[in-house]
Design goal:
186 residues
């Protein structure tokens, strides 16, 4: 799966656990890439939060007729947010403190980024991006194959990338997942 193609796969990682720093780093990386380079971001847990922040920045820029923070560089085409068990625990803790997590609708006008969410078997929430496909990992897949992190292993990675159009040559019919709905209602 590590061969060159039309899409460049980048992994969004937090820098010293700071989502804001990671957003700035990823936006700078996108800005310094060759114009027209098609990028797919894959973020696990906080990395998924980085992708969500980038989508929000793109939406706000579009609403204000301003350029996106990475204008002049690569084009963000696909975003895959992988939710970890810790995300669900963190959100439950937030609710106890009166902070209500919000599912952000990724399909916004002016944000031409195809997105998907992947949930592991501990998390029945259906994903944290409304209106995008959600893939559910089967129990045995997480328990017997702990790395790479939830969702981006075996046939599931190929299926998600193929379904989003990030890697058309990787379309897989059987991917060790529960079939996702065409969209998640928000």
């Amino acid at each position: 799966m590590c061969r060159r193609s039309a899409a460049t796969v980048a992994t969004a990682r937090s820098t010293f656990a700071s989502v804001d720093r990671a957003v700035a780093t990823v936006a700078a990386d996108l800005r310094h890439m060759n114009p027209g380079t098609s990028v797919t971001l894959i973020g696990h847990s906080k990395g998924g939060s980085v992708i969500k922040h980038l989508l929000i920045a793109a939406h706000r820029a579009t609403e204000s007729d301003l350029p996106v923070p990475w204008d002049g560089g690569a084009t963000l085409r696909h975003g895959i947010c992988i939710d970890a068990p810790l995300d669900l625990i963190r959100e439950a803790g937030s609710i106890m403190f009166g902070i209500r997590p919000r599912i952000w609708p990724a399909a916004r006008p002016g944000v031409p980024v195809a997105c998907a969410t992947i949930n592991n078997w501990y998390d029945p929430s259906g994903g944290r991006l409304a209106g995008v496909p959600n893939y559910q990992v089967r129990t045995w897949n997480d328990n017997f194959h702990p790395w790479p992190p939830h969702g981006m292993k075996s046939g599931l990675a190929r299926r998600v990338l193929g379904d989003l159009g990030a890697m058309p040559s990787l379309v897989v019919t059987n991917a060790d997942t529960v079939s996702p709905p065409s969209s998640v209602s928000g």
